[in-house]
Amino acid sequence: MKIIIAGVGKVGSILTKKLAAENHDVTIIDQNPDVISELVNVCDVMGVCGNGASYSVQQEAGSEGADLLIATTSGDEVNILACLVAKKLGVRHTIARVRNPEYEKQLRFMREELGLSMVINPEKATAREISRVLRFPSALKVDTFSKGRIELVEYRIGEQSSLSGVRLTDLYENTRAKVLICAVARGNEVFIPSGEFLLQTGDKIYVTASPQELEACFRHLGVFRAQARAVMIVGASKICYYLASELCSTGMSVKIIDSDEQKCVAMSERLPQALLIQGDGTDAELLHEEGVSQSDAFVSLTGLDEANIIMAMYASKQGVGKVVAKVNRQSFVDLVASGSMTDSIVSAGGITSELILRYVRAMQNGMASHVKTLHRIVGDRVEALEFGVPKGSPLVGVPFKDLNLKNDLLVAGIARSNGKIIIPSGQDSLHCGDSVIVVTTHTSLRDLSDILKK
Question: Would I find Calcium among this entry's keywords (predicted)?
Fold first, then answer.
């Protein structure tokens, strides 16, 4: 597809590299010639220096006839205008990054009246990601399929865990919960495991099931942690606002710490249910006085990655049940993940780019593919896709044991149209109207029929 990216900061750069790697025809627009030059040389893409909202600049970039324009400049208004100009030039789809909370109530208007295909708020998307792991603190990350009826959770096997050394077939028999471990990351290796696979300490496992079955499984293993009720957040940012709003609406107790008095006053006016504390969140004595050790969860959301990591490590040492840190720099993300310094890591740029890439993949697949949802896990090395099962599919009614499925691929779950959730065995089969979850290391699946060997 021909894709134009206007604004190549953190998110735009990530998108440029990933979309170019997937062999899309990418053209980038930015007002910084040095950034343009670097990405053109590294990613082998076309580059135009100028304002992404300019009619003439978009013409030069080849908007006429383009499939998609993604506007990720630092200005919301510029992004919206860039999408409007692109529409007038004939671009089929447009995506705008809009961060200002004041525009939140206008998103439907933007999509319906202004013709934007997708409006994404990075801070709100990140807050939702954090909220999901606070509802299921045992997990490092939670992704959802079939409107939340099936979840995919990431969990690290710690030292002295009852899971270490366990064969998967034995695990399924002992827990009696309908769950499936569909992927395992061990060091630099990735496995789509069979029933004979043995788990080890340090493994990151990816488990699919309904929320109820996941809870039952984790309770049986003795690693279940109840939903957080008292949450401490450091950094009165936009992410903090969206996160605290959602947490307060569910009855959680929220305490927010920030060193900026004006931010504290503004946040307290907008969130009267939350308790605002003016102070330095990196001050261990302050955290102790404010009861960090009594908190169920701790979330560090300042603008400094280093400070967020240090605070998260301190909270972990104090025995906080769930710790989440916002880390944007990829080198830090890799370091923190490999060293198990904190429970969960979130990156607004990473989450935004993942959502946009998911939309691009859905566009590329087209209507015929019936792809509903796509999640990339294990550092983008494994894909978890949700397909709809159409009428006339040759897979309907055929037991899985009789299907010639590709290697390194698992059918991880089925959501029936009547609401029933199935973790499939060899005797199960697909029905018309089902939603089916497929987990695989193959990144070229475009249609449900692609799960079969040719």
Answer: no
